[in-house]
Amino acid sequence: MKNVTDSFVFLGHWPSAGSFGFNTDILATNLINLSVVIGVLIFFGKGVLSDLLDNRKQRILNTIRNSEELRGRAIEQLEKARARLKKVEIEADQFRVNGYSEIEREKMNLINSTYKTLEQLENYKNETIYFEQQRAINQVRQRVFQQALQGALGTLNSCLNNELHLRTINANIGMFGAMKEITD
């Protein structure tokens, strides 16, 4: 305490300062200022500081509780999602198996349908070829018949004269007349 009073006495010995002076002893002044500030802070700030710390403590505890609740909900949702994922994977496997079966069935149906279509096309082709052959044969027959008929008419016309022609017509008329009497 002697230092504290010495510092005040020392202020009085400053000749240039008169009745007011500065204490240049930094250690002594800082110690006094610090002790006064700390005392004031402890006296007035103790309640405020404890309230601030209590509020901060409550916010931290509330945040921890909320975090724990959110964590619990997240774990619950994760379990539900895992269950749904497992269910979807099982359904996907079933669809995959059924899909492969369906693909094989469709493939066989397509192959069978293609064979039937090819068979029908082969039959149509054969029928068309047969029809075209018959038509070609008939055309050839008609041409041969026409050519033979023209050749026969040409031969008859060149060989027959009017008298022979009239006798042939009369003979034919007689034959038709005899045939008519037989049929009647």
Structure description:
It is a single chain. 91% of the residues lie in helices and 0% in strands. The protein is mostly helical and 184 residues long. The protein has a domain at 31-133. The chain is rod-shaped, with a radius of gyration of 66 Å. Residues 7-15 have low confidence and may be disordered.
Number of helices in the DSSP assignment:
3
Spatial separation of the terminal alpha carbons: 178 Å
Largest sheet report: none
Instruction: Name the helix and strand elements from N-terminus to C-terminus, one letter apiece.
Output: HHH
Low-confidence stretches: 7-15
Round the mean pLDDT to the nearest integer and report it: 82
Shape: rod-shaped
Radius of gyration: 66 Å
Structural class: mainly alpha
Give me the count of strands. Answer: 0
Helix % is over 70%
Fraction in beta strands? under 5%
Protein name: ATP synthase subunit b, chloroplastic
Family: Belongs to the ATPase B chain family.
InterPro entries: ATP_synth_b/b'su_bac/chlpt
GO molecular function: proton-transporting ATP synthase activity, rotational mechanism
